[in-house]
Amino acid sequence: MLKTLVFCNQKNKALFHGLLAYSRLFDIESVFIESCNEARQQLQLLQPAALIVEVTTSDAAEIRQFEPLSKAVPLFAVSAMTCETVAVSAYQNGAVTFIRLPCGSKEFYYRLLSVLKNCYRPPLNELHNTIDVGNIKIYTKSNRVMLNNEIIHLTPSEYNLLLLLAQNVNQTVSTEEMYNKLWSTSELRHTSRGLQMHLSKLRRKLNLKQDQQVRIITIHGKGYCLQADNYNS
I want to staple 60 with a disulfide (CB 3.0 to 4.6 A). Which of 33, 89, 202, 228 is the partner? Predict the structure, then answer.
């Protein structure tokens, strides 16, 4: 699950909750903070993918106070101010993008995701907690996945399936084991349609199709396998 930190005017919290509504549908969790010191603390605890900052001053002073954190996390400036100099100041103060309000919740999600694909910076303590399969890199500490150096957003179920397969490259993982990884209750465990749906989305998001060097194949009557050419464990 991706996490973002959000700094905004207290009276605009409801507005930002609405702005982030579509992102929550895709498992992007937002944690509201009230100061730069709190942001530093949460950076250590949550390892967020982005810091979203509301700008209400003409010189984007809010971005400037968070600028020292920009090496650890990308800064997103959001503002209802229409003056061009506000956007310019935000960029000069360290923002990677400027989003002008009003903005729809769905548009905001896609703009957020688009920028994150190019801005993800793995923490130093995560560099040795990875699984590499072809052009796919899995950061097991933060549950993040990159394809060709771009972050790919997966739901928790999709990530759990990928991790299970990646821990058993070129080996068959039984359908039963995959059910157990996804569902804890027997009522849901045998909904193979749900499993097929998650696998289909994984194939699409990570280009794990039959004709690729890294692919998910079906072992009929047994389970599934993440096959990778020239793979060394």
Answer: 89
Q: pLDDT, tens digit, for every residue of 32-52?
A: 999 999 999 998 888 888 999
Q: What token pair was written down for 133?
A: 């399969």
CB atoms inside a 10 Å sphere around CB 58? 11
DSSP string, 94-106: TEEEEEESS--HH
- Asked if 95 and 62 count as a contact pair (C-beta separation under 8 A), the reply is no
* Cβ neighbours for 96, distance < 8 A, ≥ 6 positions apart: 70, 74, 75, 76, 115, 119
Residue ranges of the chain with pLDDT lower than 50? Answer: 187
Provide the CB-side half-sphere exposure for 5 (13 A, CA).
28
pLDDT, tens digit (0-9, with 9 covering 90-100), for 197-214: 889 999 999 999 888 899
Can you give the pLDDT at residue 120? 61
Q: What span, in angstroms and rounded, lies between the C-alpha atoms of 100 and 172?
A: 49
CA 143, CA 159: separation in Å to the nearest integer? 7
How many whole angstroms separate alpha carbon 66 and alpha carbon 222?
52
How many helices (H) and strands (E) are present in the chain, helices listed first?
10, 12
Give the end-to-end CA distance of the chain in Å, rounded to a whole number.
26
The Cα 205–Cα 151 span in angstroms is: 11
> 123: cis peptide before it, omega within 30°?
no
Q: Which helix (H) or strand (E) holds 30?
A: strand 28-33
